[in-house]
Amino acid sequence: MIKKFLYSILGLSLLASCAIENDIPYPIREAAIESFEVEGQCAAPGSSQSSAATINATDRTVSLYVDDAVDISNLRILKMTVTNDAQIVADSAVCTDFSKFPTEGFEVPDNFADTRVDFSNPVTFTLRTYQDYAWKVSVTQVINRQIDVTGQIRYVLDEAKRTVIIYVSSTQDRGNIQVNALSLGGSAGVVSPDPTTVHDFSSPRTFLVANGWEKDVFREWTVYVYPEEGGSSSSSSEVFAMTSRAVLNGNIESGKTPVVEYKEVSATSWQTVSDVTVSGTTYTAMIKGLKSSTAYNYRVSIDGTQGSEKSFTTAAAVTLENGGLENWSKGQIASGDYWIPNAEGSTFWGTGNSATAIYKTNITNPTSDKYAGTYAAELKSQSALNVKMAAGNLFAGDFQQDPNSILDGLLHFGRPFTSFPTSLRVYCKYTSEPMQTVGSTTKLPSSLEALKGRPDSCHIYIALSDKSEPYEIRTDPTNRQLFDKNDANIIAYGEYICGEDVPTYQQIDIPLTYRAYRTPKYLVIVCSSSKYGDYYLAGEGSTLWLDEMELVYE
After folding, report:
1. Number of domains composing the chain
2. Percent helix, strand, coil in the chain (nearest 5)?
3. What DSSP character marks residue 52?
């Protein structure tokens, strides 16, 4: 009896110990969408940037645009990759066949998968690791309608009522209208009868219109043509002044060609702008070669009639702080000191030196092997006591140790900036070594595994952003957040990548491609001796030398 009692006590103890073990919390493995592509994907309206989706890891949102040839209510996803091998749980209510939707990341759906989803409204995908992370994907359809008739000044389109009112010059004969474009169903749609064969618009005309994704479904549209009183040869315009350039956008009567002139306010002679493009009833003029912080007048002439003079003032040309990399100071941590590429009291440039100094290593150093002056910067990829491979780096921003992962960094890219450079000029040379990883904690995405052993590449990029704050960068693989050059707040971007040895200093000009004309709030410049250093993949000894960096305004 006593023996049975002891066995019972022992059994209860074992059960209790099991319960305690099960209470141990699961590790945090945050899941994120890395890439997302659908059929018909395109760039945002009026944008010259890429068609890539905008992924916001902070808000867990994905936004993208599609053209007018696809059915947004039955849209096929072509690619969806996620971090940390997360399980994908789609919303069953919007899937064409929920049972066949992939449960893991994919790049090309297999023959048995069905990735068609109704994106008429934003769709939520749950990424599941030890925790659930809800991501919202929003798709906007761009219906590219073009409306252009000879003599047109402007038009008003009401999609709900399916009507278009076209205003033409008061001298235009509405009984003899030449239609140049009337794509009411978008670029992929169908309009019947052929609008270019219809000329009499003295009364409303009706057309049957089918969208590109449903060409067998026609709806009736009504087109009205009215005279615009006082609108003959009229033009309106607005200007966006930069530092060395100004962009002029305006409306004009169809078939007319504007002549744009400009001069300094104090000058007596006018200069004619050669870079003018006209599309239907709108035009764009790019005025180049301007002086910074200078007031200018401009005017637009139509058919020899000069418009009123208007004015603008260009922005100041801001120089790059310590662009010559002459000023260096020292920081201190418990295990020693480390180099900072700033003068005492300045914080413009950041590096990862404060982290690698823990392992008695500086990955970014001043060097007398320079192009000009006294010093240059040497960025060298090195293994830190065989724990992780660190890339030499230099960036406009600051570096902190990630409080949740002592081996990883928490960076902020961007310094306050409101000017408009046309390029970044830098003198550099490079030595490339085969890429590798070190340490048992480094886990690469499958897409990067194949790069091991290949020549390393250096990477320099510049961006202007109107985001309200710097970009937060996290290198912790379980919570990684990297810079996205296709972010919606990126106004202008340029980059330089080199994967071969460059033994002597070369002048490199990295032009900025402007995607939108808005005033920036931050300047982002990032230089790395190893392009995939964020993943701790780099060549041992790959070295990038930098000197005489400057912002160019042309």
Report:
1. 4
2. 10, 45, 45
3. P
Spatial distance between the Cα atoms of 73 and 54, rounded to a whole number of angstroms = 20
Helix (H, G, I), strand (E, B) or coil at 378: strand
Mean pLDDT over each residue of the chain, to the nearest integer: 89
pLDDT at 49 over 70: no
Residue 107 lies in a domain: yes
Pairing of strands 415-416, 522-528: antiparallel
189 shares a domain with 46: no
User: Do residue 191 and residue 263 come from a single domain?
Assistant: no
Span of 2-16, 149-163, 399-413 with lowest mean pLDDT: 2-16
Residues 339 and 487 in one domain: yes
User: Rounded to the nearest 5°, which phi and psi values hold at 51?
Assistant: -85, 5
Is the pLDDT at 178 greater than 70? The verdict is yes
Q: Is 13 inside a domain boundary?
A: no
Tens-place pLDDT, residues 485-531:
988 899 999 999 999 999 999 999 999 999 999 999 999 999 999 99
- Whether 380 and 426 map to the same domain: the answer is yes
Within a 13 Å sphere around the CA of 486, how many CA atoms are in the beta-carbon half? 19
Which CATH number fits the domain that encloses residue 195?
2.60.40.2340
For the ranges 88-102, 188-202, 251-265, 316-330, the lowest mean pLDDT is seen at 251-265
For the stretch 299-315, what's the b/e string if a residue is b when 16 or more beta carbons lie within 10 angstroms of its beta carbon? bbbbeeeebeeeebebb
Q: Does 281 share its domain with 182?
A: no
Q: Which domain holds residue 252?
A: 235-313
- Count Cβ atoms within 10 A of the Cβ of residue 31 and give its class: 0-12 exposed, 13-18 middle, 19 or more buried: buried
Q: Are residues 464 and 540 in the same domain?
A: yes
Answer whether 177's CB lies under 8 Å from 251's CB: no
Sign of CA dihedral 164, 165, 168, 171: positive
The span from the CA of 330 to the CA of 399, in Å, is 15
365/277 same-domain check? no
Token digits for 413? 């890219």
What radius of gyration do the chain's Cα atoms show?
A: 30
491 and 413 in a single domain? The answer is yes
Residue 274 falls within a domain, yes or no?
yes
pTM: 0.75
